[in-house]
């Protein structure tokens, strides 16, 4: 089958034909949240129009349809990441909730005073703060893999930290600031050899790279629907079955129980043990449609497209005077996320000019990675990020906007 053109793909995304400040929208903030194709919007719409009811409880037709829709979405996600069984896919609200689920449920059951947890300096707050909370409550220690000047993990330091026998290692597969793609398969194998459990923050990688949880041999993998063409309000925790089976519940309430008496309860089977209360059914349906859409494009194509657009962006951005790019300068080491600063212009001012004069949406700030900003000696960067619908012409508009900002600020 012929790959579809990016122009044709753009036609599937209604928002991309709108204007902002009288200019065509140039959306370069997909690392924060992606836009949604019609297939996703319509799947959710159709679900609400025809099949909505609460799940798992009703014995009437539409409740059974809603339950099937939810479970079908789970199966799609399981196939997308090559999980062995769909019960290993737990629906959460987002990556943040998935990591918190592990930190509270697995963490509190397994981590004791003096135990070591290994993280990295490039983590998003959502892969730092839950472990800080666990360490504070349990008396565990946190250590961090530092970065090379190029923005790669110092793997020699990682190896030395593993010699101390950590209980858990948790790292991102792709940095949301530097774009760095970490060698997670090797890092997981090393963690296992050292007796540690390995959690992968796949918030930035699941949308952009082929992800095979069995090939990685990851113990836990966390990601968010809204960054991979799906809706907000739905995320995934994948876990190895033995680990999930042994873990106590995270949230208590309806659906996660087998039986309840006034003073005690027993737990439902996987995955429902971890899905207390009415789930985000329409959102799961939307995520299922997103996964179908990405699978039809092919994740190899997605990666290939982003590699070429990133190579183009790196090349063009380096023609702008006084522009500094953070992270590796070769596209095979990074995903479609480019953080930069321009002269001494504040990233927020830059983002404002780009928005108002050029219709370009980029992110400015600390990107929920304040320790990484500190490591870079910055408080904020500007960040442009790309996805399946990004065109080289949009990079040209960005570059034009950056040159205009230099003129406005006369630097
Ligand atoms: N980890 C990384 C690497 C991210 O980029 C993000 C989102 N910016 C998150 C975690 C958190 O995702 P969410 O806000 O959807 O929970």
TrEMBL record:
Keywords: Pyridoxal phosphate, Transferase. InterPro entries: Aminotrans_V_dom, Cys_dSase_SufS, PyrdxlP-dep_Trfase, PyrdxlP-dep_Trfase_major, PyrdxlP-dep_Trfase_small. It comes from Thermogemmatispora tikiterensis. GO terms for molecular function: cysteine desulfurase activity; pyridoxal phosphate binding. Its cofactor is pyridoxal 5'-phosphate. GO terms for biological process: cysteine metabolic process. The keyword Transferase applies. This is cysteine desulfurase. The keyword Transferase applies. Belongs to the class-V pyridoxal-phosphate-dependent aminotransferase family. Csd subfamily. SUPFAM superfamilies: PLP-dependent transferases. Residues 26-398 form the Aminotransferase class V domain. Its EC number is 2.8.1.7.
């Amino acid at each position: 089958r012929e790959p579809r053109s990016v122009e044709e793909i753009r036609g599937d995304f209604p928002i991309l034909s709108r204007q902002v400040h009288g200019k065509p929208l140039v959306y370069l903030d997909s690392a924060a949240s992606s836009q949604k194709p019609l297939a996703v919007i319509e799947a959710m719409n159709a679900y609400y129009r025809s099949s909505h009811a609460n799940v798992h409880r009703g014995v009437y037709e539409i409740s059974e349809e809603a339950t099937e829709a939810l479970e079908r979405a789970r199966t799609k996600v399981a196939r997308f990441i090559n999980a062995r069984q769909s019960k290993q896919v737990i629906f959460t609200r987002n990556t943040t909730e998935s990591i918190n689920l592990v930190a509270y449920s697995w963490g509190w059951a397994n981590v004791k005073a003096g135990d070591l947890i290994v993280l990295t300096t490039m983590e998003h707050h959502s892969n730092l703060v839950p472990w800080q909370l666990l360490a504070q409550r349990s008396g565990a220690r946190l250590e961090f893999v530092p970065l090379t000047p190029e923005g790669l993990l110092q793997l020699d330091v990682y190896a030395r930290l593993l010699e101390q026998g950590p209980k858990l290692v948790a790292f991102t597969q792709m940095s949301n600031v530097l774009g760095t793609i970490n060698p997670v398969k090797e890092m997981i194998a090393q963690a296992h050899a050292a007796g540690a459990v390995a959690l992968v923050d796949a918030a930035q990688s699941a949308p952009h790279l082929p992800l095979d949880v069995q090939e990685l041999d990851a113990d836990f993998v966390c990601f968010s629907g809204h960054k991979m063409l799906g809706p907000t309000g739905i995320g995934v925790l994948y876990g190895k079955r033995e680990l999930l089976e042994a873990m106590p519940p995270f949230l208590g309430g309806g659906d996660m129980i087998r039986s309840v008496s006034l003073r005690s309860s027993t737990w439902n089977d996987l995955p429902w043990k971890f899905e207390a209360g009415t789930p985000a059914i329409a959102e799961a349906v939307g995520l299922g449609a997103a996964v179908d859409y990405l699978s039809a494009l092919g994740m190899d194509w997605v990666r290939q497209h982003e590699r070429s657009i990133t190579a183009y962006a790196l090349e063009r951005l380096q023609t702008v005077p006084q522009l500094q790019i953070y992270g590796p300068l070769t596209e095979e080491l990074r995903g479609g996320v480019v953080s930069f600063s321009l002269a001494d212009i504040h990233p927020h001012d830059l983002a404002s000019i780009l928005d108002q004069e050029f219709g370009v949406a980029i992110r400015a700030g600390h990107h929920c990675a304040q320790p990484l900003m500190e490591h870079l000696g910055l408080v904020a960067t500007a960040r442009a990020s790309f996805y399946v619908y990004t065109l080289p012409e949009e990079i040209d508009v960005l570059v034009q906007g950056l040159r205009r900002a230099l003129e406005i600020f006369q630097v």
